[in-house]
Design goal:
This protein is an alpha/beta fold. It has eleven helices and 21 strands.
């Protein structure tokens, strides 16, 4: 039987926000790590017979060059932030709005003037790099733009590639882990700061806004993604948005949210109970908690070397089997977890169709089983964990309590 917590967490229970010295140290760590990151990418060139790599994803741009755009800025930045890496050069595209920023953040790169017509500048970019075969992140460029690049430089062959940088980013460096840990602490403190404000009659929207405020004023440079605050039947929406629905006694209240610290993200879900839990909701919560524990136990044994190295598919199956055995298999439609770092969702994946290869290490991912009953209720518990076979441990980075917590009384 899951214990019911009456004493609510306090923000002081969790790690303080990062200091300016931490931010400076992390920035320097990125600068020091970039040569090795670039070397790993360039080491792939020979295997595919390419002599350059064209990247379009903002998280890859930051990881490899240092140039960063705010979340969502890439939608209005045109071709700024796209980059070409050859065997001996880094070229970052930036128009007049971003040129000075790119010069400051990517000092090792040559900054090329960007326009909204990539085809018009493509021949000069590839010619200056001496590129004849270029690997392209094909899953993130449109067919129309691919065709335009082929027409613009018909003597340059475009080679579709996938997951080159994603695979490298899945294995986390120590300073990356520090930033994810710090982002988790920001989120932990933020939820602890608002739990005493949860009362019947307050709206989902008001609580979501309060949680966002606590994160932004408590050490986060931005949100990792939009806050989900969902009560009662709304909690059956795995990725629902807060509305003007009022919190009511006898219902669950689900929060899914994350902070961003120095570019790295956290992601957590807690399902709280407003007033005394109903027997149905408490039973569902206990099933979800048992499912999460089953995945944690399997992955802990794997990290410690007590069993063969686990795959993301096995991590998912351990949780899913518990939910299916309880008769709720049809109420758990999403995967058990996802990697996180510069992007909220990245490799490795824990799901039914995840890779059967052993999980990378050290890496960070979520473990987040859930049960959702349409129009009635929903429960999810989500923690980020550090999976590290070298240290022989699985460490929870999300520290907010996972026991049944009653609020609003």
């Amino acid at each position: 039987m899951t214990a019911i917590v009456r004493h609510l967490p306090h923000p002081a229970d969790f790690t303080a926000p990062p200091a300016a010295a931490d931010l400076s140290r992390w920035a320097e760590a990125d600068r020091a790590a970039r040569p090795a990151r670039l070397a790993r990418l360039r080491a792939r060139f020979a295997g595919q017979g390419v002599d350059a790599y064209f990247g379009v994803r903002p998280e890859h741009m930051r990881y490899l060059t240092g140039f960063s755009l705010e979340d969502g800025e890439d939608r209005v930045a045109g071709n700024s932030g796209r980059f070409l890496i050859s065997g001996d050069e880094i070229v970052v595209l930036a128009d007049s709005r971003y040129r000075l920023q790119a010069v400051a953040q990517a000092p090792e790169a040559r900054i090329a003037a960007a326009t909204y017509d990539l085809g018009a500048i493509w021949p000069e970019i590839v010619a200056s790099a001496g590129a004849k075969r270029v690997a392209v992140e094909s899953g993130f460029i449109s067919h129309q733009q691919w065709t335009e690049l082929e027409k613009a430089a018909p003597d340059v062959e475009l080679v579709p590639v996938a997951s080159w940088v994603e695979a490298d980013r899945a294995t986390k460096e120590p300073d990356e882990i520090e930033r994810i840990r710090a982002a988790c602490a920001v989120a932990d403190r933020a939820l602890a700061a608002i739990v005493r404000r949860i009362k019947p009659g307050v709206t989902e929207h008001k609580l979501a806004l309060a949680l966002e405020w606590e994160m932004r004023t408590g050490g986060a440079e931005a949100l990792a993604f939009g806050v989900a605050c969902l009560t009662g039947p709304d909690a059956a929406l795995p990725h629902g948005s807060p509305s003007e629905r009022e919190v009511c006694g006898g219902q669950v209240l689900l929060f899914d949210f994350g902070a961003m610290v120095a570019g790295y993200r956290s992601d957590m879900t807690r399902t709280l109970f407003v007033g005394e839990p109903t027997a149905r909701d408490l039973a569902i919560y206990e099933i979800v908690a048992a499912a999460q524990n089953a995945s944690v136990e399997l992955l802990t044994a794997s990290a410690r070397g007590e069993r063969p190295a686990a795959s993301g598919r096995e991590g998912d199956a351990a949780a899913r089997q518990v939910i299916e055995a309880a008769g709720h298999g049809e109420h758990f439609g999403h995967g058990t977890g996802h990697g996180i770092g510069l992007a909220t969702h990245e490799l490795p994946s824990l799901g039914r169709v995840a890779s059967e290869d052993p999980l990378p290490s050290p890496t960070v991912f979520s473990i987040e089983p859930g049960i959702y009953i349409d129009g009635e209720t929903g429960v999810r518990i989500e923690d980020l964990v550090l999976y590290d076979t070298g240290a022989r441990q699985l460490e929870r980075l999300t520290c907010f309590p996972r026991e049944v917590i009653v609020v609003g009384v």
